[in-house]
Each structure stands twice: as C-alpha cells, then as structure tokens.
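PROTEIN DESIGN WORKSHEET
SECTION A - STRUCTURE
LENGTH: 856
TOKENS:
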C-alpha cells in the first residue's frame, strides 16, 4: 500500500447545494436583461400570456425574450408596519388596472397600450388608492389608504362606501385597505391595518377577524390567498402567518408541522401565494422566502446566495404571482424578479458556486461512481475529487511518477470502476493508478518506468474499457491499445507497425476512444485516422468499408466519442457533426447543424433507452430522438438544453461523460459537472402559444390603433405590400428547442421551417387576401397564431373603377356613334336640299327656256 497519497480537504457539502440540493432553482431577471429597474413592486399576466412588471421607473411587458417599457412610475415604500406599493391588477376583457405613483388609479388598454385615468369616483373622494379588484360582474372594488373601501357597481351606476362606520350592515375593522381577495365561495376578503373582513355575496353581511380584540395590538394584514383545500392564508406585518382551514371558523398562527416551529411568528410578510402544487409561498421583508409544502409537511427557507446564480435574487420579497404554466414569479426590492419553474430544476450541477473554495471541480475531464454511490471526478489540473450523498468530499492529489512529466500529476483524463469495485485512474503524462474506493489510497501504479508486472508503455491513458473482472483495455496517447491485468500487468498491445515486434498492428498509435461492440469485438477511435474494428480474441482487424474511412481520413475528421447501437456506430466528431456508420453494409450518414444538431462538436454520447441519445456539445446538452432512418433527421428530432436551464456551462469536455446503473447521466465541462435522470425530467406538457410581437411595413414599424400582437385583420394599401413579422413562443423558461414554422396562405405552398429564427419577411406581394400562420411546433394539433392580411389594389384596379371605365368607354363609343349618325344625317339633309334646289333651278330654267322658245 502506498503511503504517499496526498489527502486534500475533507469537508461536508451539506447545505452547499449538492447533498441537500435545493429543489428551488431560480432564473433571475433584472436590468441586465432589459428590466427598467431592479425593484419589482407587482406582477400580472394579461389574457394573451404576456408578463407585466411594475417598477418605480416603468411598466414593463415581457414575452420571455425582450422587454417593452411604458412610461409609468409606481410607489415603492416599505416598512415593518405597512407598505405603499404600486399595483397591476387584471380587469375584464383587454384591460389592466394600475395604481401608479401617489395612489392614482388608471386603466391600461393592452390592445393599444393606451392609459385612461379613473374618474368615475372623484379623486378628492378616493384619496390615495391602495388596492383594486374587478369581479366577473364588472363591479370595481377600490381600497384606499384611509377612506375605507369603495364599490363601483355597473348596475344603475351605483357607488357604495364601506368603512369603520357601519353602512348597510357592513362595518370594516380598519379604513386602510391593503388587499382585496375573492375566494371560491364568492366571498370578498378585505385585508386592513386592523384585521380582515369577509363580505358575503350580495353584500348580505360582513364578519371581522384578527382585529384588535384578537390581541392587544392591532394586526395589520398584508395579503390573502386560498389553497387547493380551500384553506385561507393571511400574511401580516410583523405578526407572522395566519391560517384558517376549510372547516374552521377562526384563524390560528401558523408556525410549522409536527410541533416544529420552523416559521417565525414575527415575520414581516409582504405577500402570500398558494400554488397549484399544494405549496404556500410566503414573501417577507428582510427574511427572504418561505415555501410551505403541505403534502410533505416541510418548510423551506430560501435566502440569496451570492455564489449561486440560481438562488433567490434578494432578501426583500414584495410580490408573488403564478403564471398559466405553473411558474412562480417573485418580485424583489432590489434584485429584479426571480422565476421558479419545475423545468428549471431538471438538472443538478456541481460547480464552484455550490462547493467550498478549496474543492476542485472545474474543467472536469472524467467521471465514475463506485459501488457505494460515491462520485469520482477527474479534473484537468486540480487532481481527483470525491464526494457522496452524505456530503463528504475530498480532493486527492496523485504523486508524480517521474520528474519530466510534462503535465504534472493532477491531470485526470480517464476513470473506470472495475468489476471488483476498484477505481482505475488514468492521467495525462503521469501513468495509471488503481485506488481503493473505501480507504481512498493507491493499491497499484502502472507507468513506463515501473518494474514488471507494473510497466506499461505510455504515461498518458486517455480512455479505458472494461474487459474481464481484472482486465481493462487502455487507450494511450502514443502507444496504441493495451490490455492490462491489475495483477499480472500488460497482457497484449495493439499499435502501429513501427512500434516493434510482438505488437499487433493497427492503423495508428494515438487512441482517442474505445467502445465495446460485443464480447469479442471492440471499436478503436483514433485521433486522426478514423476508427477500426478489432477482434480481441483473434487479434484480427476487421475489413473496413472504404466510404466512411475515406471520408474520415480525407477530411481529417477527429472522433471524440463512439457509441454502438443496432449495428450502427454513432461517432461524435470534432467540428464535423455526428456520423452514423452501419458496420454491416458500410452505409453512413453525416448529421450536422444543418439538420438541427446544436453544435458540430460532440464530446459524449449516452442513451437511457433505445433510440434516444443524450449528447454533450459545445452548445449545451442535446437530446436526439433517433429516427428509424437517420437520413431523415431534421430539427424536430433534437431538443437542446443550455446553461440557462441549469447546466454547468454550454461547453463540455472530451471524455467527461458517464452513465450509472440506475440510468443517471453525468456530463462534465469547463465549469463543473451536470447530472440528471432522463426519465425524471419535468415537462409540463403544455405547448406555448406563438405570438407576433413586432411588424414592419415597407421597413417602417407598424403603427395602428391596435398592437400587432392582438390584431386579427391587417389591411394595407397597394403600395405597402412589403412586410415582416417577429414572433416568439410565450414560454418564460429559457429554451433553444423551439423550431418555428410559418406560412403565408395563398402565397407559400407549405409550411416553412425557420429553425430557431423568429422572423419572416415578404416583399412586393400582389393585391389580394393572405393568411399568415406561425407556430413553434410541427404537429398538426399544435397552437397556431393567424393574421388575416388584405392588400387593397390601387383604385385603377378596383372593380368599381374598371366598371366605371367600361361604362365611360361605352358612353364615349355611343356618343361617337350618335355623333357620326347625326353627321351623316346632316350631310344627307344638305344633299337633299341641294337636290331640291337643283330641281327647282332646273325646272325654272326649263320654264324660262320654254317661254323664250314660245316668244321666239
């Protein structure tokens, strides 16, 4: 047993995010993403699914990708006894109610973003508005800071005021109204600075709770919500959280479960939200966030962690809202908004953000697990890190085997747990070590300088493949493939022809990866010479099909990993994509970014089930649903995950991939390790609606009486026949998996596959009617947004103009015809007159001649 193993730090990761990994990871959105200010006082969602955020210096609309800001300011005044915060409240139809700076009530029409002040009840009578609620009947409930509650009834334009003075049998316990809530029984709960009031339907009566009679001091109530069991939760300023179950008539202070007081009784609670999963979210001022899980009987206290970018962004929580897809949005007083979604918790990441500074975790190059569930992580320059689910972690530094080692002892590039449970540690430039996983000390050491049987030909072991219980195949950097028995030493070696006698020849001695085909056959992936199939029992290299290998050698393709399934070698390459080679007939298919692969560099391939691959790349982790024929692969077969979904980073490393017996997949990269079980990934199953967010007409932004997002019909003149649209899928969880399809009916012959491009443009369209359709998925039943577009023809091409022109032409022809006839008749009359005159003259002349004749 070697005593010169340097043991590093032994420390527990409990509470550091690994062994007790929090089930609440957040995406934090602040001014860096375009939010107008990092103090978010209220949150709302409109009918189309857009997110609205109120800050001190702007009203922000968010579609998951970009912000649009409207110039409105909101109050942000918080103290232990009460708060004055701006509000955004959903109204009926296409409107939102805003309470802006100074307690002014305004109405926002989301169709055109127009704002209208509320004037039905004079401002002099209302004073400062503190909260508002519009019920399904159109009645507007308006809470004020010191004048009680006003009710604006649409029937008969009736106005009613309720206060501490009884009116129609209703008396409120306080005049400062801080929250209005409608429960499932159609009762209105009114939170005041002195308890809560319950107003029964039809204003029949009111009951008061938690008033100054409950304790000596008044209980100032801040927020109310109802859970899925019809229990009521009331947050207070400095008095903690109160609960009333479905069958109880009063309230009790909630401290925790099973007599464990996990929730302080003096919390300053700004907001309470009961979600769809049976949890109650409690946002406090100065004490972070509490999540009460009634099903598990647990309370989680969530605080900001500067080291963890996925923690809560700030201690002061002002508002909590839930979106239609189950996501929780938490507005803070200085950290922007924190978004929780189950899909953001699909991946567990171990990085410098959740381990102590003295634990090495960056630049992961190799991974394995031992039989006791311990996780072993090899790094590029920082040695070997061990951790387990109990939170025990230590970094181990291997001894230097020779002084001229170019890389030192801490570059761990390959790991393997053999069938006996021992850990094989392959280094780059420092030989091979075998460790005892329990004592964590070195049992064996193999390198070129060691005596037999512990001598191997190379210091660099880049990959390993289990053979028998005691024997492992080693892929070296310069000396080919070696079969090593941990007791007997080197058994056989495959290398290039010039390596010497007694060595079975293969194409190259630089090995990158080893893959098992069956009990007798392995696939050897070389650094630059493609791959070979080797029968390890007969030591015969199988004949190659020229097509794939010629392509590898000619194009200098470097294999990074090889996975075998269904007679097919799936070869991940450096910068050339994914190659599928059928070893039975030599047919191959190259799959690249053009077919939807997120990156042409693939470091690792693992599979949790048949025909589903998980691959680590330079652009995150990719899921590939393998079709029966790889040649028909397109973007619909890929789903990508990036650092925004919780990965260690978007860049992973060669050799850093591993699958456990229970199906958990591990991938290592430049900033740590990410692991997950594919069968446990959460997808809420809802496909988001795709909406048009922007439009340009003739390269000018669209301006109309209704926003293009809500417009159903777009009418354009003939000279505005070039337009473009921007669109996005309304999903607030970051995703690179959306593949957009669009079509312009009566112009495009079919759906156009736009990939992740959310932009479409058309130019010089002929007048007519078109229908623009867009969606984020390929299925026929997926949500589709449509916009009817009508391009009016120029007036000289309209039917009425053509009809008028035809009528005018016919009129002109008829007029010309009549004119011609009249002219002909006129000539004829002249002729007739001339004829008549000639007749008379000739007759007169003949008479004269006759007379003269007689006279003569």
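SECTION B - SEQUENCE
RESIDUE ASSIGNMENT:
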């Amino acid at each position: 047993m070697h005593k010169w193993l340097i043991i590093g730090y032994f420390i527990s990761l409990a509470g550091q995010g690994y062994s007790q990994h929090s089930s609440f990871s957040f995406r934090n959105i602040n001014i860096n993403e375009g939010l107008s200010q990092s103090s978010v006082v209220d949150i709302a969602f409109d009918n189309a699914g857009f997110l609205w955020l109120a800050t001190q210096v702007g009203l922000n609309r968010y579609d998951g990708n970009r912000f649009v800001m409207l110039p409105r300011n909101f109050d942000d005044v918080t103290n232990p006894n009460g708060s004055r915060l701006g509000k955004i409240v959903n109204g009926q139809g296409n409107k939102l109610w805003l309470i802006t700076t100074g307690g002014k009530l305004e109405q926002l029409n989301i169709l055109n973003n127009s704002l209208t002040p509320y004037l039905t009840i004079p401002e002099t009578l209302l004073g400062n508005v503190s909260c508002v609620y519009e019920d399904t009947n159109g009645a507007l409930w308006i809470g004020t800071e010191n004048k009680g509650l006003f009710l604006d009834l649409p029937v008969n334009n009736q106005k009613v005021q309720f206060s501490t003075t009884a009116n129609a049998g209703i008396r409120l316990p306080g005049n400062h109204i801080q929250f209005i809530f409608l429960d499932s029984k159609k009762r209105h709960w009114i939170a005041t600075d002195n308890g809560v009031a319950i107003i029964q339907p039809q204003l029949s009566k009111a009951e008061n709770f938690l008033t100054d009679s409950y304790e000596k001091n008044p209980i100032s109530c801040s927020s109310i919500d109802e859970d899925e069991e019809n229990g009521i939760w009331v947050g207070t300023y400095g008095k903690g959280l109160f609960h009333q179950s479905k069958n109880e008539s009063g309230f009790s202070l909630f401290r925790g479960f099973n007599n464990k007081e996990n929730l302080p009784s003096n919390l300053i609670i700004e907001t309470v939200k009961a979600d769809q999963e049976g949890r109650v979210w409690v946002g406090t001022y100065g004490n972070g966030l509490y999540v009460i899980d009634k099903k598990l009987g647990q309370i989680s206290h969530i605080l900001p962690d500067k080291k963890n970018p996925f923690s809560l962004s700030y201690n002061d929580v002002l508002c909590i809202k839930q979106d239609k897809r189950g996501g929780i949005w938490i507005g803070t007083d200085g950290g922007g908004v924190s978004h929780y979604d189950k899909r953001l918790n699909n991946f567990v990441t171990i990085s410098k953000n959740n381990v102590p500074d003295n634990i090495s975790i960056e630049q992961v190059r190799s991974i394995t697990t031992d039989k006791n569930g311990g996780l072993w992580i090899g790094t590029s320059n920082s040695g070997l890190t061990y951790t387990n689910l109990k939170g025990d972690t230590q970094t181990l530094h291997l001894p230097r085997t020779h002084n001229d080692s170019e890389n030192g002892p801490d570059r761990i590039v390959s790991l393997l747990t053999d069938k006996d449970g021992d850990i094989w540690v392959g280094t780059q430039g420092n030989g091979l070590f075998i460790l005892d996983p329990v004592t964590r000390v070195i049992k064996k050491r193999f390198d070129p300088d060691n005596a037999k049987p512990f001598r191997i030909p190379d210091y660099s072991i880049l990959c390993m493949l289990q053979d028998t219980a005691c024997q492992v195949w080693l892929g070296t950097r310069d000396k080919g493939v070696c079969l090593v028995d941990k007791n007997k030493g080197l058994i056989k070696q495959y290398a290039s022809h010039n390596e010497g006698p007694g060595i079975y020849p293969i194409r190259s001695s630089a090995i990158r990866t080893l893959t098992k085909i069956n009990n007798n056959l392995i696939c050897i992936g070389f650094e630059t010479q493609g791959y070979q199939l080797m029968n390890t029992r007969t030591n015969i290299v199988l004949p190659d099909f020229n097509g794939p290998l010629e392509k590898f050698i000619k194009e200098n393709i470097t294999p990074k990993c090889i996975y075998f399934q269904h007679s097919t070698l799936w070869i991940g390459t450096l910068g050339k994509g994914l190659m599928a080679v059928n070893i039975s007939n030599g047919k191959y298919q190259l799959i690249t970014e053009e077919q939807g692969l997120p990156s042409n560099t693939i470091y690792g391939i693992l599979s949790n089930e048949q025909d589903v691959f998980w691959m680590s790349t330079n652009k995150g982790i990719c899921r590939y649903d393998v079709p029966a024929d790889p040649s028909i692969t397109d973007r619909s077969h890929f789903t990508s995950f990036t650092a925004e979904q919780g990965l260690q980073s978007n860049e992973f490393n060669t050799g850093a991939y591993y699958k456990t017996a229970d199906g958990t997949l591990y991938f290592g990269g430049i900033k740590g390790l990410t692991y997950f079980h594919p069968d446990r990934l959460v997808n809420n199953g809802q496909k988001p609606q795709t909406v048009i967010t922007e439009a340009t007409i003739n390269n000018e932004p669209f301006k109309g009486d209704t926003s293009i997002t809500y417009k159903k019909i777009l009418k354009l003149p003939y000279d505005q026949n070039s337009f473009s649209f921007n669109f996005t899928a309304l999903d607030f969880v970051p995703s690179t998996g959306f593949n957009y399809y669009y079509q312009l009916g009566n112009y495009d012959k079919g759906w156009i596959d736009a990939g992740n491009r959310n932009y479409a443009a058309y130019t010089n369209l002929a007048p007519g009617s078109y229908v623009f359709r867009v969606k984020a998925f390929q299925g026929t039943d997926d949500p589709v947004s449509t916009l009817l577009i009508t391009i009016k023809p120029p007036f000289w091409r309209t039917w009425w103009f053509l009809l008028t022109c035809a009528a005018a032409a016919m009129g002109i022809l008829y007029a010309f015809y009549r004119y011609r006839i009249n002219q002909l008749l006129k000539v004829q009359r002249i002729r007739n007159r001339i004829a008549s005159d000639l007749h008379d003259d000739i007759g007169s002349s003949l008479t004269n001649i006759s007379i003269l004749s007689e006279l003569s």
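SECTION C - NOTES
The first strand starts at residue 6 and ends at 12.
The helical segments are 123-126, 546-554, 799-855.
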